[in-house]
Amino acid sequence: MFMNRLLLVLVGLVWTGLFQFTEADDWNQWQGANRDGTWNEPGIITSIPKSGLKELWRSPIAGGFSGPAVAGDRVFVTDYLLESGDQQFDPGKRNQLVGVERVHCLDRKTGKPIWQKSYACPYNISYGLGPRATPTVDGDRVYTLGAEGNLYCFNVEDGEIIWNKDLKQEYNIKEAPIWGYAAHPLVWGDSLICLVGGDGSIAVSFDKQTGKELWKGLSAKEMGYCPPTMIHAGGTDQLLIWHSESINSLNPKTGEKYWSVNIAPAYAMSIVAPIKYNDYLLVTGLQGATTLLKLDPEKPAATEIWRGKGTQPDHNPPLVFEDHIYGVDVKGQLRCIELVSGKRVWEDLATAPDGRPASSTTGFLVRNGKHWYITTEQGELIIAKLSPEGYQELGRARMVEPTAENWGRKIVWSHPAFAHQCVFSRNDKEIVCYSLAE
User: Looking at 10-14, 51-55, 94-98, 166-170, which range is the least confident one?
Assistant: First the structure.
């Protein structure tokens, strides 16, 4: 009898382990499956071990700011193989470069290449290191957007090109935004929604199967860099498009405008996706652009609550949790802000380079339960607890070396992927995978 019970217990443990493994989270697009920086897998370390992070593999790649996407047993990442030209890191100057953009599909468990696709792509953008947009994986297809507006739909299995578009050519656009196409494509139902640019085509919805245009809408002097964002409010789905002049709510089926609020960030840097929290909508940007809106619960509409408070990030998204905003400001201060009032609760220099404020500092936040996994621009992973009471660091470890350059310092500006109890991080030389399993 005892042996039978023991056998049942062991079988139960095995099946529980298998269930947890097969239910592991994917990170199939920018900021994860829900595009909100949350990671829900159980069995994750909640502090950095004294021995450091356990490395599983590393694989060589070239330059780029795009983060990896993880779906099933595959990792997708894009890069730029420079052939000629000077990659000067000057925010006000376009680089004239010759090279190829590449899409890599790697084995999630080993990092070994499964397939690779490339296409010639001259660059005429500032910070011409490589693609910006994270691949978007949807079932058996993966969508990529290059820094010069090359939009591709690939077959996940073998990399076959299903359809592709040169957005600048098709929409009569003279040149890409100075810092390149950066808005991560959004899959919604049967459509793929992208920031495109041009007159009347800031936002374009394509049939995700064929690439056929379904609708286009909005005009602005500059299209900005903010990814299309879907929310549900006022009893309906609303597509949010923040370009250089205003944030706009559209009917995602038709492109019809529901409402608009003028929010014009400095340098046309509409970058960070708006965040919906209950009936609030947080828009964050430079030099007073950060704004809190109240969404009407009965119909698509919004009213302004406050503006110019809170945290003002360059291009790294904050997170909202339990009525507070947590994010890294443009000078590198990690801040906690009361959402409704915009009042600062505390700030800490834990994410600033060398513990000192510096221009255009980046730090990416991911939350798993009550623990936060913060990536610094120095290529470190910090595990911490964040609350209105303060910042509690539970260790940090280097994942990759900073290889790009900004304002005279070395940086990593790529958002990692957190999936299958691992973290996947890249710089301009390699992509690495570390286990975060307990």
Answer: 10-14
- Between CA 264 and CA 129 the distance in angstroms is 27
The token pair at 194 is 């992208």
Residue 99 · residue 82 · CB < 8 Å: yes
- Cα-Cα end-to-end distance for the chain: 33
Each residue's pLDDT tens digit, 71-107: 999 999 999 999 999 988 889 999 999 999 999 999 9
- Residue labelled with tokens 């949350």: 38
Is the pLDDT confidence value at 50 over 90?
Answer: yes
Residue 8: pLDDT above 90? no
Q: Give just the sign of the alpha carbon dihedral 57, 61, 63, 64.
A: negative
| 49, 117, 286 from 58: Cα distances, Å | 20, 20, 35
pLDDT digits (tens, 9 = 90+) for 195-237: 999 999 999 999 999 999 999 999 999 999 999 999 999 999 9
Distance from the Cα of residue 335 to its chain's centroid: 20
Q: Rounded CA gap, 234 and 258, in Å?
A: 11
Q: Which two tokens stand for residue 162?
A: 């299903």
CA dihedral 38→39→42→44, nearest 10 degrees, is: -110
Q: Residue 102: what residue type?
A: R
DSSP 3-state assignment of 16? helix
Q: Report pLDDT digits (tens) over 124-137.
A: 999 999 999 999 99
Type of residue found at 308: G
CA–CA dist 419, 434 (Å, integer)? 10
Query: 393, exposed or middle or buried, with CB in 10 Å at 0-12, 13-18, 19+?
Result: middle
Tens-digit pLDDT profile for residues 148-166: 999 999 999 999 999 999 9
Rounded Cα distance, 182 and 160, in Å: 24
- Each residue of 65-84: b (16+ CB within 10 Å) or e? bbbbbbbeebbbbbbbebee
